[in-house]
Structures are given as C-alpha cells and as structure tokens.
Amino acid sequence: MMEIDTWVGASGKNGMRRDWLVRSQATGHVFARATSTWVMMNQQTRRLSKMPEEVRAEISPWFIEKQAIHEDSPEKIIKLDSKARYMNSNLKPKRSDLDMNHHVNNVKYVRWMLETIPDEILDSRQLSSIILEYRKECGSSDKVQSLCHPDDDGILKDGLKQTNEVNLLNGFSLASEILENNGLMDSFEKAPLWYTHLLQTQGERGSEEIVRGRTEWKKKMSTLPFSS
C-alpha cells in the first residue's frame, strides 16, 4: 500500500511551495519526490504580483518548513529553436485534457514532452526526474509543437567522471571499442541522460512558449523496490 504526504511552505517573500512524498506505507521506502513553486499574477497586466500581507498572515500558520527535495537553485533551462533534434508538430488538446479553467492540464504537457523522446531511450531507460518551467496557458484551440534535444556533451562528461581514464572533448568522436577497451562502456550506459524540452504554440502570429522542461533518464532497473 502506498501513501502520499503533501504540505505547503514559504518560498521567498512572495511565493509558496508545495511538496510531495510518495512512499510505501509498510517500509517507508520513498518512490517519488516532488516540489512546486507558486506565485501570484495580476490577471490584467499578466505580471507577477506581491502577495497581500493579510493573505500571507492567513495562510502562514499552515506552512511547514521542510523540503521534499534538497538542492541548490536549478540551472536555467535554455530555450530550444528549430535546430532541436526531435520535433513533433500540430499537437491538439482534447476536451479531456482541459481543467476547470479550460486550460490544458499539467499531465498533458508531460505526455507531449515524452512523445519526442526516442524509442531506444524509452526501451532502455526510465524517467528519473523532470523539471518544468511554465510560461503561459494553453487553450483548447491552440496548436502545439513539442521540441526536444539531448545534452550530448553532458552525457559523456557525466559518464566518464567516474573513471577519469579518458578525457572526451568532442562529443561522440571516440569509437565504441575504445570505450569498451578502457572499461568505460558500462559506466557510460549507467550514466544518466538529460534532455531539454520546449512546448510552444503554433500560429499565424508566430510561436509563444508554453513550458520549458528538463528530463533525466536512468538505466531501467531489473526489479522494482516493492514490498511483498
């Protein structure tokens, strides 16, 4: 049996944070961690707005100052362009994808991003972490384009840090047998792979960003840590 623990806390002067833990009720093993940051926005100006003191005073007694994910400030997610290696265009939301405000829900954003991940990665890897940066809403009439690009340089650097036997400077320039002879192929296969994502609208007036994202993929586990 699984249990989900969630709580809210402060994030800076004008933001709020909501965290989640998903774990086994029997063993306490944590299967997933998540965190989100929320800010107020002026609906007319579309700019961030300061949280009124009376609102903060009302909700602050409910804040719990602990974090599900302990990390430094995340790196800035770059904006992809037409040079992205993988692309899926003319994506259209269905009625079942909309929330009560008639905006596409978060789950659909993730699914659109994963549609651009190569099949060989989906077959050999599992999604380990995901970061999303929301830019604007997506409505029922919008046409969406999903862009995806691998972090080629970062993959090799991370994979070879464990051995320090060979220094790769130019991406995938070394042949696979060199990696095997130096005992690095196994390290490379175990190293996490990172992909950068962008969802944007497509229209006559050009494109507008919806969400930027980052996904991390690790080698699939042979067994899952479920208790019997």
TrEMBL record:
GO MF annotation terms: acyl carrier activity; fatty acyl-[ACP] hydrolase activity
Key words, A-Z: Chloroplast, Fatty acid biosynthesis, Fatty acid metabolism, Hydrolase, Lipid biosynthesis, Lipid metabolism, Plastid
Top-level division of the source organism's lineage: Eukaryota
Subcellular location field: Plastid, Chloroplast
Coiled coil feature spans: none
Domain Acyl-ACP thioesterase N-terminal hotdog: 1-59
Domain Acyl-ACP thioesterase-like C-terminal span(s) in chain numbering: 83-161
GO cellular component: chloroplast
InterPro entries registered for this protein in UniProt: Acyl-ACP_TE_C, Acyl-ACP_thioesterase_NHD, FATA/B
EC identifiers of the protein: 3.1.2.-
Pfam families: Acyl-ACP_TE (PF01643), Acyl-ACP_TE_C (PF20791)
Similarity-based family: Belongs to the acyl-ACP thioesterase family.
Known function: Plays an essential role in chain termination during de novo fatty acid synthesis.
Protein name: Acyl-[acyl-carrier-protein] hydrolase
Species per Swiss-Prot/TrEMBL record: Carya illinoinensis (Pecan)
